[in-house]
Amino acid sequence: MRVSITPAAEAVHLVVKEIHHVARVYSLFDVAQILLAGRERYHLQFAVSDKVGPILKSKLDSSMWLTKEEAIAHFWHSPASKDLYESEEIETDPPAGNFQVVARCGMSGEWLGPPNFHAYQTTLRRVHREQFSNMPFEVYASRVRTERGEEAVNAWLETMKKRVRWRLKGAGDEAWSFDRGEIERDFATKRFSEVFEEVRSAEISGNIPARDLSPGLLACVRIASSHARKHPAILIPTICRLLENEHLSVFKREGKLFTGPARPHPLTTDAILAERPSAMVEWLEANPTAKLADLWKGVLPEGTTEPGKEWLADLFWLLTQGHVLLFADDSLVLPRRRAPQGTKPATAKAPATKAAKKKKKKRKRKPRAPKVAVPTHAKVIRTISRMSPGRLRGLRGPDLLWRRRLVKRGKIASVVEEE
């Protein structure tokens, strides 16, 4: 089982809307932490290996379970059961007979009935299945206590005057049944596939209630959530893809990824701006590390403490064009201004030094050893076949072997002439 966390597209859309509204630059690491702050802001993706069986997903409430027993138990405790089955409480005549002892649940206090009553075992197992299924039946049965007396019998008879019956929704009056086990068997054998489906991968909302997940799946979700909160950077690739779908720019600055209303777009040195934007740009150029409050103190006229709408509109224009960056901590950054196109920036020549005047000595390359040509077999055969008898007698080693072979084949011209 593999559980991974992915940001919800709806939550990313709200983040993008906020970024466009405030025109601020946020680190993608901070965006990941914002998306992990609420469970409704991300989705849970489940993937099951082929080595194990599939998981069961409800078509009604997206609950997920590992076994059929867990799914059935959840169905009867969820509101979804009322969509498929209906129940009603009716008044009936209490059982007739001479009862002396009445059994009662030792934990919930519910009356179970006399041990000799025909529905006692059915009631006992129903209460165990509905309320104490996590306890072995033998342990639960050992905690049942019996009470004697007319008061206990009358209390049980009073509960039997009202009984609950069930039927499939929309069925006729003859389909009513007082036996809950019969209804449960009908769902397990005939209606189960209408509510649950077998899947090997699924995606659900992160704010799913814990009661709608199998205990094993809930443990996997908690491990994945804890890992994601400790390492939010694992969400950044998915966040980048979702931001691109929202047409929001992503750029890198000082080795970190950021997103904002626009990419940094430096102004040229000869750019002509209006009075207010020009004043803000010149002040930021003179004060590289500044906060938003410092900017207003530096550019606003004397006696003015709060910027007017025209100042805010001009700053918003600079931010949306990428000429100025406003980060989440109110720090302002003016991207380094560039020279106009077609002009080369003047560079000051460094004064000549003695070390610069010295020419670099070229390293002398070591002479390479001459390549030794290794004669091929064809060349050896050709050379030996043309030798005189005197030279043939002076051959040694491999050449001597080649001479003997060539003599047997009659390939040496001088030997053939002598014969």
Defining key terms:
single chain; 419 residues; alpha+beta; Arc Repressor Mutant, subunit A; 4 domains; three-stranded antiparallel β-sheet; 42% helix; 17% strand
The biggest beta sheet reads: 3 strands, antiparallel
How many alpha or pi helices? 18
Radius of gyration: 45 Å
Structural domain tally: 4
Number of strands: 17
Helix content percent band = 40-55%
Shape: flat
Q: How far is it from the N-terminal to the C-terminal residue, by CA?
A: 91 Å
Class computed from helices, strands and strand pairing: alpha+beta
Strand content: 15-25%
> What is the residue-averaged pLDDT?
85
Q: Care to describe what's here?
A:
With 419 residues, this protein is an alpha+beta fold. It has four domains: 2-54 and 200-245, no CATH class; 68-189, no CATH class; 263-333, Arc Repressor Mutant, subunit A; 377-418, no CATH class. Helix content is 42%, strand content 17%. α15 crosses α17. The protein starts with a strand and ends with a helix.
